[in-house]
Amino acid sequence: MRMTINCDMGEGFGLYRLGDDAAMMQLIDLANVACGFHASDPTTMRQTIRLAKQHGVKVGAHPSLPDLQGFGRRAMAVSPPEVTDIVTYQVGALNAFLDAEGVPLNHVKPHGALYGMAARDEKIAAAIADAVRPFGVPILGMAFTAHETAYSAKGIELIPEFYADLEYDGDGNLILSRVHGAVDPLEAAMRVLRVIRDRAVTTTAGHDIPVKATTVCVHSDTPSAVAIAAELSRVLRQRPITQSSAQV
Hints:
The protein has helices spanning 21-25, 42-55, 80-101, 112-120, 122-132, 146-153, 185-198, 225-237, and strands spanning 4-9, 30-34, 58-62, 105-108, 139-141, 158-163, 200-202, 208-210, 215-219. It is of the alpha/beta class. The strands form 2 sheets. It has a 7-stranded parallel β-sheet with strand order 4-3-2-1-9-6-5. The chain has a two-stranded antiparallel ribbon with strand order 7-8. β3 (58-62), α3 and β4 (105-108) form a beta-alpha-beta unit.
């Protein structure tokens, strides 16, 4: 089983930069590019797309709740129609830059709190699907959640993913913190290899839950993100890693 590596990136804003996108881009298959509501700006979006194009990385939109100060990691009281409009607006913005650079939109992946809300609430997930359907691309999400049931009901393909740098609680939910903690690259790789072998992960409650995934996510703002991606690339692809791309 071959798993791709995806990364949430392009999450700078103005003069501020978050994560080493240039180093990460050498190690991943899919770039989930922020669209302006939790991070990024027009120039950052274009630059990130150009970087992905240079490295042959497929680009997807990474829409968020309108929470720039909270980095999109705070839940908000939004209605399903508002969610559809929020996602349509952001995907449309990124798609305009993709068209300008001659790069196709490959997928959509909701960000942060919006992602978590959609995993638990089929109405929110269905609203995201309504926004994505006109673009004709799949959505990254978690199997065995409302992502899978709602997207399938709307005729949208789910690309199931696993998180190498986040923990899962006893109910199988991702533990989403405002700031990601450090993760040992080798331990992250072992978790992914276990998903491939056993299709399971051990939760913080100490028991296993089933996992179905064809791609693994590494967040660009996780400490040592480049080292984690380099180790995943090594074990999943068995391809050489340059010294520059393996630096933290």
